[in-house]
Amino acid sequence: MENIELNNTLGLNTLSSTGTNKNRKRVGRGIGSGTGKTAGRGHKGQKSRSGGTIARGFEGGQMPLQQRIPKFGFSSRVNRATKEVNLKNIATMTDVTLESLKENRIVPKSTKKVKIFGIHELAQPMKVSGVHVTKGAKESIEKAGGTIAEVSVRPIKEKFVKTSKKAIAKPTEKVEEATAE
User: Fold this and answer.
1) Pure H helices in 29-168
2) Cα–Cα dist 43/147, whole Å
3) What is the percent of the chain with per-residue pLDDT over 70, rounded to a whole number?
4) Is the pTM of this model over 0.85?
5) Which one of 1.20.140.150, 3.100.10.10, 1.20.200.10, 3.75.10.10 gives the CATH number of domain 81-148?
6) Helices and strands (H, E) in the chain, number of each type
């Protein structure tokens, strides 16, 4: 009885590999093979040619479903580098700058502009510099005895400023000529 049980046990040394590997189908090898002439590709057409693939989602020239359905949502490129921080999340900090917010992992490293918002009672005074602050947050910080340094606004480049043709110095030239005579 023991010999019968030993022969039926499953192990790596008793596994059989017969029938696990199939030979690949050899197409285009004559009529007798069953897959000769058109080699299983049917007759004519784009898909029967070599390299004749159709782009995913292509619907034969009809407007594809992906383009027919309505689109929604918007991601502003301006807001990618701008973050907002609630005052209660930084209430324990004494010195708040853009660098200190990045170091404490309150805002991501890619952030370029931060604005503090919210109304919260602070236990100790807070010094804020280089960060924008809302009206309510400013009152809360100043109430606790903190200071806020004004953020300098970058000047607008001249090439982006629109000027009307009327504002050009032509009227002043006429006035100067009239006074010279």
Assistant:
1) 65-68, 98-103, 135-143
2) 82
3) 87
4) no
5) 3.100.10.10
6) 5, 6
